[in-house]
């Protein structure tokens, strides 16, 4: 390849254009995500499973908060029943103490 050929081809070789602005990174999760476990419909109907915040002794019902400071939105009975109806899975709280 000659020097002239390189000059003539230099305008045909395209280099990737770098974006002027970078996309903002998504923030990291503070904690691990909630793991939902499958509950067989037979067991769900046969047993009285304590699966919601309302069944726990750490739940303050007047403001729907956990006394341990854990998030309660996903574990409230109305959300748990809705989740079970859609997917057959329930998010059990690992710190639940039964009254």
How does this model look, in words?
This protein has a domain at 32-99. Helix content is 24%, strand content 8%. The protein has helices at 3-9, 41-46, 77-87, and strands at residues 37-38, 59-60, 65-66, 89-90. Strands 1-4 form a two-stranded antiparallel ribbon. The protein starts with a helix and ends in a 9-residue tail after the last strand.
| Strand order across the largest sheet | 1-4
- Anisotropy-based shape: elongated
Number of helical segments with 4 or more residues: 3
Rounded average pLDDT: 80
User: Strand portion, in percent?
Assistant: 5-15%
Structural class: alpha+beta
Q: Which radius of gyration do the C-alpha atoms yield?
A: 28 Å
The residue fraction in helices comes out at 10-25%
Order of helices and strands: HEHEEHE
Q: In total, how many beta strands?
A: 4
Poorly predicted segments: none
> Main β-sheet, in a few words?
2 strands, antiparallel
- The end-to-end span amounts to 84 Å
